[in-house]
Amino acid sequence: MTTLLLRLSGPMQSWGVHSRYDERDTAFEPSKSGVIGLLCAAAGIARDDMGRISELAALDMVVRVDREGRLEKDYQTAGGGSWPGLGKYHVIRADGSRSGPGCVTSNRYYLSDAEFLVALGGPAHLLKGLHNALADPVWPLYLGRKGYVASKPIWLRDGLVGKDPMSALRCYPWEPRSERSVPSQIRLVVECDPEEGQRRMDVPICYEQGRRSFAPRYVKNLWFDPAKWLLSAEEVGECTCQD
Fold first, then answer.
1. How many CB atoms within 10 Å of residue 34?
2. 229, 222 in Cβ contact below 8 A?
3. Hey, how many other C-beta atoms are within 10 angstroms of the C-beta on 96?
4. CB 177 within 8 A of CB 9
5. For the chain, what is the HEC assignment?
6. pLDDT tens for residues 7-41?
7. Residue-wise pLDDT tens digits, 119-143
8. Distance between CA atoms of residues 92 and 9, nearest Å
9. 48: Cβ–Cβ under 8 A, 6 or more apart, which residues?
């Protein structure tokens, strides 16, 4: 098996798995729909290309949580004010009508200062194409919402590894910010059988507006001592990366 690694690091990330409209949630790690959507943007795959989306959604996915983020809330308002010469500003509804004089509010949750290493396992030819696309994306890449840009490159030069996802994550170096920031345990989020884990409705079927649909998968958390689970520098040298 071949594995593609992506680094998702930024001051703000949001990976919604439940809510839409006025109350926007976020999971504590990247969702599969969010990661596949990012790859679709990189490769220029249309929102309604269900065949190619299905091909990407079939990839095995494991997330290594290199830095747990803090859950924060962004309180937003629209309307409720006035424009010079135009009077009260009303929010335009989908049917073209205007709302009342009050404003529309929403709570949008996000992760602050989080960092993840995502591993996707699958066919070598498919992952090699995605690796090249991440290096030169067709459309802009962002971490769950358009305003949430990455603080480090998502594309990793050595991110194409000739191993399964778990082995690739053990091989890839993890560098804490300081000795004081080294946790006693590191969390991995892995896909599993239904009886073993938590249900997530985040396997994308179609991203097209008005036809957005998702299938379920199941995930569970695994915990490891980073000093024992991650490979040493000498052992990392045995991990072979593909051109």
1. 25
2. no
3. 6
4. no
5. CEEEEEEEEEEEECCCCCCCCCEECCCCCCCHHHHHHHHHHHHCCCCCCHHHHHHHHCCEEEEEEEECCEEEEEEEEECCCEECCCEECCCECCCCCECCCCCEEEEEEEEEEEEEEEEEEECHHHHHHHHHHHHCCCCCCCCCCCCCCCCCCCCCCCCEECCCHHHHHHHCCCCCCCHHHCCCCEEEEEECCCCCCEEEEEEEEECCCCCCEEEEEEEEEEEECHHHHCCCHHHHCCCCECC
6. 999 999 999 887 666 778 899 999 999 999 999 99
7. 999 999 999 999 999 999 999 999 9
8. 35
9. 206, 207, 208, 211
Pick from 110, 111, 117, 109: nearest CA to 8: 117
pTM of the model: 0.86
Tokens of 139: 């459309």
Q: How far is CA 172 from CA 4, 66, 136, 181, in A?
A: 11, 11, 22, 19
Cα(113)–Cα(119) distance, integer angstroms: 20
What residues pair up with 63 in beta bridges, in sequence order?
Answer: 118, 189
Residues with Cβ within 8 Å of 69's Cβ and at least 6 positions away in sequence, in order, are 13, 28, 111, 112, 113, 114, 115
Torsion of CA 160, 52, 54, 207, to 10 degrees: 110
Alpha carbons within 13 A on the beta-carbon side of 170 = 18
Burial of 81 by CB count in 10 Å (0-12 exposed, 13-18 middle, 19+ buried)? Answer: exposed
As given in the structure block, the two tokens for residue 3 are: 């594995």
CA end-to-end span of the chain: 15
